[in-house]
Amino acid sequence: MTSHNSPPVTISPPADIHAHRILILDFGAQYTQLIARRVRESGVYCEIHPWDMSDADVQAFGARGIILSGGPESVTDVTPPVAPSVVFDLKVPVLGICYGMQTMAKQLGGRVTASNHREFGYAQVTSAAPCRLLDGLRDHSDGQGRALLDVWMSHGDRVEELPAGFVATAFTNSVPLAAMADESRQFYGVQFHPEVTHTLQGAQLLERFVREICGCEARWSAGNIIADSIARVREQVGSDNVLLGLSGGVDSSVVGALLHRAIGKQLTCVFVDHGLLRLNEGDQVMDTFARHMGVRVIRVDAADRFFKALKGEADPERKRKIIGRLFVEVFEEEAAKLQGIRWLAQGTIYPDVIESAGSKTGKAHVIKSHHNVGGLPEKMNLKLCEPLRELFKDEVRKLGVELGLPREMVYRHPFPGPGLGVRILGEVTKPYADLLRQADVIFLDELRRHDLYDRTSQAFAVFLPVRSVAVMGDGRRYDYVIALRCVETIDFMTARWSRLPYEFLDLVARRIINEVQGISRVTYDISGKPPATIEWE
Ligand SMILES: Nc1ncnc2c1ncn2[C@@H]1O[C@H](COP(=O)(O)OP(=O)(O)OP(=O)(O)O)[C@@H](O)[C@H]1O
Ligand SMILES: O=c1[nH]c(=O)c2[nH+]cn([C@@H]3O[C@H](COP(=O)(O)O)[C@@H](O)[C@H]3O)c2[nH]1
Ligand SMILES: NC(=O)CC[C@H](N)C(=O)O
Ligand SMILES: [Mg+2]
């Protein structure tokens, strides 16, 4: 990052990087986000919208191609979710994946049945006819010149009869119609899931669809995204001043660097110490930003205020809303003390938006209200400036690297805005936060010391307000429990618990029990996401 006094860098905006875009209609599959990530990785911008998007909105979106995701429902139900009919009239290529293929088949006049040949996991499909989507992709050959692909399946229903104009392009032993194509209309369907890495040629298949079949150019790169965001922010805020909520985490740090480049002195950052930070976190953030990077940062000590507002509240969603509201109150108070602030910038990223949103029909559930999206109060005086709102975490990190942020900052584990507030189960109190902070720092220090921090995606301690019996130094103890959570994930949407060595866990548990007065038991969380979310609340 350049120093605070340097003039904003002049960068000419690239060709419209959003113009070549793909629309993904979500039927509620667990892996819809992976489809989006694969499309983005091939250099093409895309957005996920609920399947019940209106015809007018689909049309206005202006996609060069549409992907219909998988989903838990069955098209054989009485009123199954269906794709907006305009999808098939827009004369753009359409790819249906699993449920998406099934509904495409049914909506265009084919037949789908619930089959007792359920297929979950690995399967091998054999190519059955030439097809622009699949030609040339192969993992093996069947000896008769036909390509075999290793794929991943997860379905019970299957397409029984193709709609007019389609041919079968692949089969498996249990599914005669495992892929279909109508080349003249550029409609394709695959029963398997190309978005998961277990489908070896899946990324290639999706790239083929968006780049060759839909004809999208690869404009979605870190350099282009930065130049585009800078241009957009400048246009958006003009000569107004902007207040950025800076947490020291990856997302807001990247926004900080971006805005610093885009609008220089018009930027002021506010770092809120809500009393639910990690040990010494506040000082570290001030050190890195204010001292080394020359960004103007105001530190607000609001711990008492947050604890007071959270007193007696045990419900996770209500806690999140309280925290979201207080954050904005603090931001607005600080803004009022400064000149010309009209905008509140935040490091909101795409998964925050998706997880906080429900679909119009209520089919998709709100899992948790991220404090910076669903947790925001309804009325706000400042307008929002969220340049990373369309990006996934790994894309944000690439931007951070490109913007010259230090590696340790870009690859930090994420820390949720509500902080320890969602890691103390139930009511939040200062004594609980103090205990948790001590346990957490031991866990993280040991991870770093054992070279495990960079090999895991997110690690933390959780405070359980239940007491269990222990005997220490011949005395009876009746103390609280700490749970350790450590996961590996790329996109934070699904996660696997880290197989940390037993010796390591043993060391951490002993240190916590010996060093943190008030904790007498430590457990390790071995739940995957799904179903267990990464945070406990
Ligand atoms: N303590 C804080 N002070 C000021 N703003 C905050 C604070 N905590 C969170 N925010 C705001 O809320 C946004 C969302 O928080 P979130 O934790 O998702 O992102 P982050 O902290 O920037 O990055 P990371 O996900 O890596 O922790 C932040 O980008 C920031 O704008
Ligand atoms: O800034 C944030 N505000 C929030 O309210 C919030 N809730 C969860 N997280 C982070 O999001 C990722 C996924 O978490 P979950 O599996 O718990 O939903 C994990 O990285 C979590 O730490 C949050 N971040
Ligand atoms: N993964 C899916 O899209 C499944 C589709 C449908 N629910 C089936 O079982 O066939
Ligand atoms: Mg954070």
From TrEMBL:
Keywords: ATP-binding, Glutamine amidotransferase, GMP biosynthesis, Ligase, Nucleotide-binding, Purine biosynthesis
GO cellular component, one term: cytosol
Location of the active site: 98 (nucleophile), 193, 195
Catalytic reaction equation(s): XMP + L-glutamine + ATP + H2O = GMP + L-glutamate + AMP + diphosphate + 2 H(+)
The organism's place on the tree of life at top rank: Bacteria
CDD domains to which the protein is assigned, alphabetical: GATase1_GMP_Synthase, GMP_synthase_C
GO molecular function, one term: ATP binding
Domain called GMPS ATP-PPase: residue spans: 220-412
Biological or metabolic pathway of the protein: Purine metabolism; GMP biosynthesis; GMP from XMP (L-Gln route): step 1/1
InterPro entries documented for this protein: Class_I_gatase-like, GATASE, GMP_synth_C, GMP_synth_GATase, GMP_synthase, GMPS_ATP_PPase_dom, NAD/GMP_synthase, Rossmann-like_a/b/a_fold
Enzyme class, spelled out: ligase
Binding site for ATP: 247-253
Matches recorded under Pfam families: GATase, GMP_synt_C, NAD_synthase
This enzyme's EC code(s): 6.3.5.2
PANTHER family: GMP SYNTHASE [GLUTAMINE-HYDROLYZING], GMP SYNTHASE-RELATED
Subunit structure: Homodimer.
Matches recorded under NCBIfam families: guaA_Cterm, guaA_Nterm, PRK00074.1
Function: Catalyzes the synthesis of GMP from XMP.
Name of the protein described by the UniProt record: GMP synthase [glutamine-hydrolyzing]
Lineage: Bacteria, Pseudomonadati, Pseudomonadota, Gammaproteobacteria, Steroidobacterales
Gene: guaA
